[in-house]
Amino acid sequence: MINMFGNWDQLLVVLIVAAILFFGATKLPELFRSLGKSVGEFKKGKMEAEMELMQMQQAQQAQQPVDKEAELQKKIQDLQRELEELKKQKQQSGQS
After folding, report:
1. Are 23 and 31 in contact (CB under 8 A)?
2. Rounded to whole angstroms, how far apart are CA atoms 55 and 52?
3. Mean pLDDT for the stretch of residues 62-74
4. DSSP-derived 3-state class of residue 24
5. Number of other CB atoms surrounding residue 81 within 10 Å
6. CA torsion 29→16→13→43, rounded to 10°?
7. Which of 11, 23, 59, 75 has a CB 3.0–4.6 Å from the CB of 5, allowing a cystine?
8. 77/79 Cα distance (integer angstroms)
9. Which residues have C-beta within 8 Å of that of residue 92, sequence separation ≥ 6?
């Protein structure tokens, strides 16, 4: 259908004329006004979703060092337990 018109200017004119015939000249301003509001609401929702995603990413990035620190603390505790067990085993083998 687009190839039938040759360029977008002609297509736009045909669409505007069809809209006027279909909706009537009095309804078009109301239609475009509601369309504009809908586009505005969509953009607003998109911005809010992007902001929320950005906040979630920042919170996740802020949480990562805490998680790594806790993981390192656990590893240190595990190594300390292993060291204590090795010391006990050495003492027991030395006493035998």
Report:
1. yes
2. 5
3. 80
4. coil
5. 10
6. 70
7. 11
8. 5
9. none
